[in-house]
Amino acid sequence: MTKFLSVILFFCTAVAFCSGSEIGSFAGTPTEAELTFMTQWKAFLLKQGQADDARYSADIPFSFVCGERSSREWIKPDNATIVSGDWQDKVRRHTLTWTDAETKLVCEVLLEEYADYPAVQWTIHLRNAGTENSAAIHDFKALDLLWCRSDDSMPVLYRSQGSDSRNDDFIFVGEDMRKSMWCHNRTVRMDSATNSAFRVALNSSLFDSDTRPSATWLPFFNYKTGPDGLIVGLGWNGTWCAEFNHHGDGKTDMTAGMERLNTILYPGESIRSPLVMLLYWQGEVMHGQNVFRQFVLAHNHPQENGKPALTPLCCSSWGGTPTEGHLATIAKIAKEKFEYDCYWIDAGWYGQGTDPCPSVFQGDWGSVVGDWRVNLTRHPNTLKPISDALAAMNMKFLLWFETERAICGVPATKEHPEWYLRPGGGHDASDGETLLLNLGNPDARAWVTETISNILRDNKITWYREDFNMVPDGYWSAYDTPDRIGMTEMRFVEGLYKFWDDLRAQNPGLMIDNCASGGRRIELETMKRSIVLWRTDYNCFPYLTTEVTQSHGFGLSHWLPAHATSPFLVTGIDDYQGRSALSSGAILSASEFNNGNPTPEMELWVKEKVAEAKACRPYFYGDFYPLTQGNWSDDAWLAYAMYRPAERDGLIVAYRRPKSPVISLGVALPMVDSDKNYEFRDGDTNETWQVQGRDIREKGFTITIDQPRKSKLIFWRELPLEN
């Protein structure tokens, strides 16, 4: 009966996926039609053409109010002063300026256009050019746009949940923009109140309200309007809000910006908006997602030697481990020739405590945060012996910090209490209280920049890992006055970006790992400066579900090419679990086995998994092709393909879950050319076979896994044409 059921399920799956040439292109290469549409839109914004008012509002796509005067009254497309730069690396920057005699405000927009993508990005700066305080600036919408569908299709909003250490982190969902079959209007809003209600209804989160940028929803949205759509992305490391208000007739108001801002500006003072990105696409939703992925790599991702920086393959270790333990691990890596890029030391290396700090669940690592002196009990010669050993192997060195959080009682909090924010306001904190370093304070920022830079230089740190295990909005709001709501957050966020920029400028080649309780600070401005090496804290705990780890990577890969986590290998040698966290980077360590005493067999297996991750890594920078739905069900399959158009090769990753009765899965590979031949290779057996592209397009491709709770890696490449 089970075999018969497997055959039936395989047939149904094959029918669902194998529609051959009817499947549209998912490729991440923009089309000429997409580029032409955005070129026309950019021309309108730059006073060089007319608006396509059948698709979008013929107006500047942002707005704000000063007192009772709307920016719509004085900021028009045709009255901007525009200064345009030259093309550099396929990017051209324009400055659009407006001045209002009534409010004395100067509005300056920094607009970026791209030669290779149908996208624009902008940031708005407002400055009080008067000699008196401005009226209150409020309703500041960094995005304020009417978008219209091109046919009678019902709009669909695609988005992904954020990182909250839950099963459904990063799940990619699409929602019709109607209330029902009878009521075609609908509003989807994401702000503190609606996000909090969403979290409370789930009843599964540590925080009922977590306003970190990607804690509840990722700040990226794909709005499908029939045969095309618009992707909206936001860059703001504070509290943002967004709304999609479908009128019911195919017209949708899209608005987004900083949630809490109602402030006067002092003479000469300026504020900025969140970064806004628009990307236009046509065809399949996954084509739009892949164009976004490639755009991110090209223009919103750290670069190394003119190319997108690679996510490292890391050997993780605990900072509370004494120096000799680290040196023994590093010696083992050298002797056995592990293919690691980076050695990772996490929390516990700092402070002046003398008691052991053996793990994330034991010791003083959390109670001495903010004291960035190397702990000489655990590391009597500081971290230099470790950094010297790594430098001799040409390995990079990652070190954990939680720079913005501090526990009252550590030296800096006593010497400069005015640098720290309390949730109740004031500076009279009690020992043990959690404080927030105010990066909006220039003196505090200068001190922490110098302090961290010195540690990085002295210890040859090449990866700066910044964690952030607190929700900051209550700290910010406590220091706002009634006429300056949002200004503490404004200066803090500006200060955070400057802090990271200064760190990188003072330490050439420095890379940043952006953590924040695991993946809760994913936004465009952060993505420009950092890579997420720990996408969710779900993987901090030994009772995680392997299938959920698979689902997390699958969901996040709709948006980000580069991210990583650890499969938390505590169950022994297990390819299925080891591959569950497969992505552009890997965190794999033999020390997680057997209470830190791995057997030679365990060490050999980890070495093989590191080499396997390195072989797979290049493909994750290509296009992403879901082959199943995203899920974490233990009786289903999860499968996807990565494809590199320039190299004409790819990788299939497939998991048959523990209770799945399905032996074979039929899938479509729409990137395959009917007129070409292909070679496939089994990543476990190295068996190779050839298939004609026409057969794949017409009949589909079959993945067979003969046992439950097993996985499959299949590499393939296009064969050269025979003479």
What does it look like?
With 723 residues, the protein is α+β, with helices and mostly antiparallel strands. Helix content is 24%, strand content 27%. The strands form nine sheets. Strands 3, 4, 5, 6, 9, 10, 12, 13, 17 and 18 form a ten-stranded antiparallel β-sheet that branches. A six-stranded parallel β-sheet has the order 29-27-23-22-21-30. Strands 31-32-33-38-35-36 form a six-stranded antiparallel β-sheet. Helix 8 (442-458) runs parallel beside helix 10. Residues 1-24 have low confidence and may be disordered.
Summarize the structure.
With 723 residues, the protein is an alpha+beta fold. It is built from 16 helices and 38 strands.
